[in-house]
Amino acid sequence: MCDDKVSASLTVSKITDYKLNGSNYIDWSRKIRIYLSSVEKDDHLSQDPPIDETKNAWIRDDARLFLQIINSMDNEVVGLAHHCEFVKELMDYLEYLYSGKGYASRIYEVCKAFYHPEKEAKTLTIYFMEFKKIYEELNMLLPFSTDIKVQQAQREQMAVMSFLAGLPTEFETAKSQILASSEITSLNDVFSWVLRTESTPSNEQTKVVVTKGEEKNDARRNCFFQAMSKCFLAGRETNVEAAATSTDEWVEQYQPGVYVRLTMLPSGKKGLKGFRFSRKKFTVKEVEKWWKENKLSVYKNYDK
């Protein structure tokens, strides 16, 4: 009986009556963080579960706090975070979703899934349930408003997302830059941005070049090969060349098996010119996969 009372108490427990609905994220998040700090549990915002003898107690505390935070959120928002297991994971995801850091990108992904759904091999029921979830998330990200200006801004956003979704892969850099910007402006502004990217002079597109034949010399087996057909740098397609082409360029190791070709910009910063990959570490498909997974971090590391 006592256990039932404890369970019931935890079920209704919440940190604040001011529930998260998406638009109030900043104020809501501040209240949650202040509360966690007041009970000396703010370490749950930054730390993963310990692996020592305190692990079980820490996980119990985290589960209690997690439940309190969930109970301080609207049901629609709770449905978006069902994959989260710990307080840190939950709060990081909500920050990504609502603080603006990943908001535009999330709207883009949801709009693309909503306007271009694919049943594929799913059963009709699963397809419907997934589509309905996307529809509900879209309504939450772009909630109905009686304010005409808000409605116009939402329509403009959806037009931008639809326009970006139809762009081919050579505009991937421009698309990423637009979605990473602090604010999506008008469709005309986005078009101008992409148009500038298209009109930027670029080298002729090349296919993947791999050294033909098998070299007998071990030293030559470890040579670098041109492995990427398109490397999206500075908003334009750039050939991946085998070596620096002038005295103003040099090669540095970016990570094991991956080397970057750099040049010094007038600003004094390093400018990225291209990549080289070790044949022993990468196949052509592995290079393409590496680029998809790492291109955003590459852009952050170098002035483009």
Q: Could you characterize the architecture of this molecule?
A:
By secondary structure, the chain is an alpha+beta fold. It folds into three domains: 2-98, no CATH class; 103-199, no CATH class; 218-301, no CATH class. Helices cover 50% and strands 10% of the residues. The strands form two sheets. A four-stranded antiparallel β-sheet has the order 1-6-5-4, with no helix packed on it. Strand 5 (258-264) and strand 6 (270-278) form a beta hairpin. The longest helix has 18 residues, at 124-141. 18% of the residues are buried.
Q: Assembly state here? A: single chain
Number of helices: 12
Evaluate the radius of gyration.
25 Å
Q: Roughly how much helix do the residues carry, as a percent range?
A: 40-55%
One letter per element, helices H and strands E, the order comes to: HHHHHHHHHHHEEEEEEH
| Percentage of residues in DSSP E strands | 5-15%
Mean pLDDT: 73
Question: How many separate domains make up the residues?
Answer: 3
Strand order of the largest sheet: 1-6-5-4
Distance between the termini: 65 Å
Secondary structure tally: strands: 6
In the predicted model, the low-confidence regions spanning at least 5 consecutive residues are 1-12, 201-247
What structural class do you assign from the helix and strand content?
alpha+beta
Using the alpha-carbon principal axes, give the shape.
Answer: globular
Largest sheet: 4 strands, antiparallel
